[in-house]
Amino acid sequence: MTDLDELRRALRAQETLAPDPGDVLAAATRRIRRRRATGVAAVTFAVVALGAGAVGVLERDTAVVPPAAHPNPSSAAATEPSDTGKVPPAAPAVSLQDSSWQLLMWAVQPQFASLHYGQDHQYAFEIEVRESAVPKSALAAKPSAAGQIAQPQSVMWQDGPGRWIWARTTKPVTAAEMLALLGKIGTTPPVIKSPLNSVQVPDGLKVSTFTSEPEANTLVLCPDLDVRKAPLDSRCFSLFVSIPRDGGAADSGAAQDQLPARQYRKLGAYTIEINSSHANEAAALALLNSVQLDR
């Protein structure tokens, strides 16, 4: 069992930390979890969907909190990629500087970044940075005293106008312990040596989702970043790099899939899969053949 498997189990055991995923990524989650070949990669979209769905629920009852007196502008880079056509995109400018927690995955979408850590194959710690209306329950600034933390396992605070951070953990911690962890969240980008080195992104396509894991990557390209609301829109392309667990091929596309056309390529121990609509199979093949790994 991988650390991400443990992360998934821990997060589901602590559902009070994040509401159930919304409909935004539900179809993508079911489809990708059904077919992903490696345990490490299997929860990528499940975790991303969890964050997106949770925020969707939160924002149905949110209002913009007045800006903190001293916002931290340095974290803006965490959610604003400089080049939406660059693959791999830059890692978010946020991380947990604590060697007792292992970085398992980071993910970026427009106006969103998340990092997922594990500890002792037992506990999970997540950081999310959002560019959106700040939830009413968020603190006006990063807490500086344990007395400001009402729920030690889940803390949200405003990090600038229209930007907020959510840190949560499945580890049973006191307010003082959570405060110490929050103090170790800095602006150093996370480092994971994942396999994807480069992809030739066709004109008109932009990065809608990218995840970096030790032996896997997920990439969704779309012609319009607004279609991240339906990330497997028929105009999009989804690409997965992973080491198959059993060497078997993935199942065939289901009739309801928006991207039913699947093509594969082997590079060393890795399998690269690209999904597209049937109308875009030729473009998908060219994209698939442009993939370069650093392994």
What does this 3D model show about the protein?
It is a single chain. By secondary structure, the protein is α+β, with helices and mostly antiparallel strands. The protein is built from six helices and 14 strands. The strands form three sheets. It has a ten-stranded antiparallel beta sheet with strand order 5-6-4-3-2-9-10-11-13-12, with helices on both faces. Helix 2 runs antiparallel to helix 4. The longest helix has 16 residues, at 44-59. The relative contact order is 0.15.
The gyration radius over C-alpha positions equals 19 Å
Count of β-strands: 14
What is the multimeric organization of the chains shown?
single chain
Morphology call: elongated
Sheet having the most strands: 10 strands, antiparallel
From the N-terminal CA to the C-terminal CA, the straight-line distance is 24 Å
The unreliable regions are 11-74
Helix count equals 6
Structural category is: alpha+beta
Short description:
It is built from six helices and 14 strands. It has helices at residues 3-13, 26-35, 39-42, 44-59, 175-182, 281-289; strands at 95-96, 102-109, 112-119, 123-131, 154-160, 163-169, 185-186, 196-198, 206-213, 216-222, 237-242, 261-267, 270-276, 292-293.
Features:
elongated; two-stranded antiparallel sheet; 6 helices; alpha+beta; 295 residues; 14 strands
Describe how the helices and strands are arranged.
Elements: H1 3-13, H2 26-35, H3 39-42, H4 44-59, E1 95-96, E2 102-109, E3 112-119, E4 123-131, E5 154-160, E6 163-169, H5 175-182, E7 185-186, E8 196-198, E9 206-213, E10 216-222, E11 237-242, E12 261-267, E13 270-276, H6 281-289, E14 292-293
Antiparallel strand pairs: 1-7, 2-3, 2-9, 3-4, 4-6, 5-6, 8-14, 9-10, 10-11, 11-13, 12-13
